[in-house]
Protein: MET7A protein
Amino acid sequence: LVLRAGLALLAWPIYLLSFLGIWEPFCKKVFFPFFLEKISGAHDKKSKKYKQELFRNLPDFRGPSGELRLLEIGTGSGSNFQFYPAGCKVTCTDINPNFQEGLSRNMKKNQHLHYEQFLVAAAEDLRQVPSGSVDAVVCTLVLCSVTSVSSALREVLRVLRPGGAFYFLEHVAAEHSSWTYFWQQVCYPTWKLVFAGCCLTRELWKNLEEAKFSELKIQHISVAIPWMPVEPHIVGYGVK
Structure:
């Protein structure tokens, strides 16, 4: 509690801006898109081998027509586009519409894909996407900040066709006896405020195990980024 209070004291200008109703719109429009693009570069370098392995079997989930219809939740600036197979039809969604600059840049870099549409939508409410209409759903570093993980996973299962797959890579809570978990607990309140609702201590593998996937593969990995308490990750996929 003392360390939490000390961290809050260091971040008091942000707490003040939040109290005045200024921080959230500024964070959404300016700070978070800028920060996410910068941190995505560092994270992609650390996680590239895991993403390459994760998405390697994406072509196996092509639909009966031979096409691969992919929905990405929380697309952000599109750092995952490079890992998708050629000819893949991509629908992008994000609750924050302020990633246009980075998104356009990555779309130009990855012209091997067909970009269908961009939807401003929360992971928990994908009503614009018809049920059973996609072959694969991708979600990386998103479930940490959704309002309801169980609702988001229900939407994933709804939009997937039977036999389709949900791919994920997320940071999660550390072992409770570890120093990493201790610092996650210290940083939690201020981190969540500063980084647009990101929660450090979610045990997302439990939510995935409780969801109704017919097959689920989860691997616990370490993706260390200096000075950030987000080293523990899970990666894998579930089949509807």
Summary: The first helix runs from residue 2 to 10. Residues 4 and 186 are 5 Å apart (CA to CA).
